[in-house]
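Quick check before the chapter quiz. The format below is the same one you will see on the exam, so make sure you can read both the input and the output lines.
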Amino acid sequence: MDVVYQSLQRLKGSLGVDSKKDKGTTFTLSFPSTLSLVDSLILETGGNLFALPIVNIDRIYKKEKVKLLSKNQKVYLFFENNALPVLSLAKLFNNERENPHFLVVFNNTFERAVVLVDRVICKEPLLLKETGEFLRGCDHILGEALAKGGQVVPVLDPGKLLEMVKDAVGESVFEEKVQEKRKILLLEDSDLTRAVVEDTLISAGYLVETAVDGLDGVEKLKGFKPDIILSDVDMPRMDGFQFLKAIRTLGDKTPLLFLSSREGDKEVEKAIQLGAEGYLYKSDFSLEALQNALKRMGMDEQENH
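Here is the expected output.
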């Protein structure tokens, strides 16, 4: 109880005790209404620190790992069947000193947008308090907090920030839906590889379903009709070659590309003989390599689909 009381004192709170004979004791902890603890992600842009509540962050991407597309002189990112606007956080706050390396997808519960930032510093619980005189009146700031390093960090209001993004890019682009997304079934037993490849495909606008091996892939095909199958070779229970034989026997003619760490002419020849449309090496895999393979198959790239 001493530890609790000392913590309350640091937060300028109070502890109430109400004991009643034969009924027990009630402890009441009171905190100043101007203070709240918010799990936050601290970001840096243009030499300034900002924070966003963790609960409002959907995904973080390295800029070089995703493909940003342009339309009507606006930049956007495909994310879960939506074209989300991408704007620099530094430019939103009229700061031209920027070197963006990360994209942060955030939400206000109902809608999403994306901001470019220079650095993602850390996740940290921040004790939020009302803004001081200098920032008072800034609607886009929930409050101020003191980070572990001693810096005062403004905590951004996700709802107000999202409105600023919408105002900057225009409603029509913001709400545009991605139509007729090309669907890919990805078979990969490695959790890490599957997550990396899936993120790459989703960020480029593909609709992705995953399977952990050939048997799982056969099951997924019962309810998911992909345009392309991207499959590993070495997998438990049913490997990629066995999977290809199985679906062709069932009459499924979906184009299939192998994505494997097995490298060599014999592996490629075997894949083609079994009816695969192509064979990609994991060591060389990139979105560009996949789209080049699709072109060779006579299939357009996703953004032109």
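If your answer matched, good. The first strand starts at residue 14 and ends at 20.
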